[in-house]
Description:
Number of strands: 15
Radius of gyration: 24 Å
Oligomer: single chain
Amino acid sequence: MNVDRARRLRTGPTDAEQKLWHRLRNRHLQGWKFRRQHEIDRYIADFACPDAGLVVELDGSQHGEQVAYDEIRTRKLEIMGYRVLRFWDNDALTNIEGVLEVILEALASPAPHPDPLPAGEGVRLGDRRVTMTIQPRLTQVFRFLHARYADGVAELAYAFDDDAPMVERVRFPHAPAVPPARQAAFDAALKLLHLVAGVSYYKAGVPPKIDVTDGPLDDASADLLDALYLHGLAEFAYRNSLDLRGRISFPRSAASPSPYGEEGQGEGPTLPRAPSLNLPRRTLVPIGGGKDSLVAVEAIKAIGGEATAVWIGNSPLIAACAERTGLPMLNIQRELAPELFELNRLGAWNGHIPVTAVNSAILAVAAILYGYDSITFANERSASAATLEYEGQQVNHQWSKGYAFEQLLGDWLHSHVAADLDYCSLLRPYSELAITRAFARLTPYFDAFSSCNRNFRILGPKPADRWCGQCPKCHFVFLALAPFLPKPRLLSIFGRNLLDDESQAAGFDALLEYQDHKPFECVGEGAEARAAMYTLSQRPEWQEDALVARFRDEILPQLDAAQLALEPWLEPSAEHRVPARLQAALKAIDA
């Protein structure tokens, strides 16, 4: 049936398909052989290069209604070893050279892992092939084997049952020798990284037993990891109809001694502090390519703080944003064990992981290795709000960006690594709306930033090259910026008016928590989205746009207007862990 359908599709290509095929056929693209309407299992790909494991899809304007199907199909193709690039028909018709450039970049780069992370938090895979024979969902033990470090490379080894090791590598560029005075702290941070990064592998089988080869953990470490795996995998569990409560239990020792005995000044009766290492007074600031980290960077620069822009993975967009900051840059690479790909082929559980926690652990190692006394993320207070509640458990897509995790990890680093290593979020006091107000003043970044998680057409010459215009992140950033930017300026950033497109109604409804919970994405609270939309409904330049008018006529009558004011969302909270030397940066954000 698929063969006949593929033949029919070849006889009636769209104008966009015909134009792209003219450039791909007969090995015109640097000798790569492409096939059109190519059958892969039960799917038919618009264009495929089997030798490179690459699929290229062209979507018409009506394709936005099929986003959920496309995501499932893309996931299945990735599990089979294919990368998938998606373009709009209009891209092929009006910017064919840009489309070909992206395809060439994909052909020249290694294939991504089938368990991709959010934009700005990606990984780089090695190319070795592996064969595994276990059934991941039937495994009984997840084993943390060892963590080793040499010459700038950390090796983290894991296994299910008695199967072969899965080895992840984290590469720290131009790494100096670990100073002897920091060796114990470095070893503690490396062990933490091993335990935290294991979440990527544990979720493949979620076996009932966890074994740590180095021996049981102290209470503080076990508490941190139990909480991280339970709450950080809550969305994964919800989507897979699993209940991890009572299943996740890291081994702990009875005595639970501090790694530093009784030395140091205690924060409490059971949490002594690690020694101070006199770390240099400078800050690692993770860059994700979006507005939040850029607000944090500029606030630290405003007070003359010494900082380095750091990111994990090899996103050109993030690299461009980091370069735009003018700060020194540090690009760390994380290479997932290729065995995870094989586990997916064998039917592993799959889904969202708390990647910010993994990145935080990587940066704790980097702080000790390179010498920094603070790791300062740009996570807003809205990140602590749950996406939904399911069977008595809060499910938060952003749990490892929330304040509860920040407190757990910050306290753990003080007690186990270094008393003078601070871990915090500079933007914790602020809502998303307060942050977008601050970002609206940072005009030099308007042509460089992107919060879009679906868009791979980065660094292109047009706004549409950075914003897909279809995903929850695009919807939310557009809505949150609208109250604070002149309308023409906002439209120039996105290249279109998302609020005057009736086909986007369902996406904005989800942000407003109208008839559904908010998306599983890094977006603000439903209440602040409603406040932003209400503000626009009162402004002449916006109130007749299709979705603003719909909000005014259909949704607003069901709401309490007294709860829709914008101003309360612009007030900072006093709840944060920002160290004293960086607190002046908060005033720069408020200014």
